[in-house]
């Protein structure tokens, strides 16, 4: 089976000055990032949003991938942007935020700033530690997708949560949490006041763990987890453009 209609990766080629890499969430697709990407493109930025391995096809495909595969895809996209744009920002939703943090930890000041929307770095529920065992017995559990407050809006995501892949995501959380102090870039963190997927402690762990001195926290009062498709989407889009423009490298003055 091929890629689902609407789940395709996308990109916009704009300014060579500033690029923006977007990372979608676990079991999701670039569809959740498309309106954000269009807004960034409208502001003149070059935008890339890859489809992560195992996503956008059938949920069993995700069980055949690991966090290293997902990270490899966004890392490759970042390197391509760094080769063509003077200044590069990275933004992500949910696990996309986790991957964004990992890129920030590895690439340091080669990334000008990061935008995190309901990022995940842990899960407090008791069954999380059972994922490696559960994955050998049960291939999937009910979906985590489509946590959206806005009526009529639907997330293009899997109808089931693949358990082996979820166990790999938990490993990524541990890796990212251990290195949060390596994050030194400016951070714009937007999180929903009500989120039925990612618990509030996640954003607090990020805020407490990063070494960045330039950190802005925005509470999204009228959205659930998939905030990029929810009532506060315009807040995310507008604030991310303002953030990027404020932290973009200034053109060198000619003598």
TrEMBL record:
One example GO MF annotation: carboxylic ester hydrolase activity
Amino acids binding substrate: 26, 95
Record-marked site positions (Important for substrate specificity): 144
Stored SUPFAM superfamilies: alpha/beta-Hydrolases (SSF53474)
Enzyme active site: 94, 195, 225
Span of domain Serine aminopeptidase S33: 20-230
PANTHER family: PHOSPHOLIPASE-RELATED
Identification of the protein by name: Carboxylesterase
Species for this entry: Amycolatopsis mediterranei (strain S699) (Nocardia mediterranei)
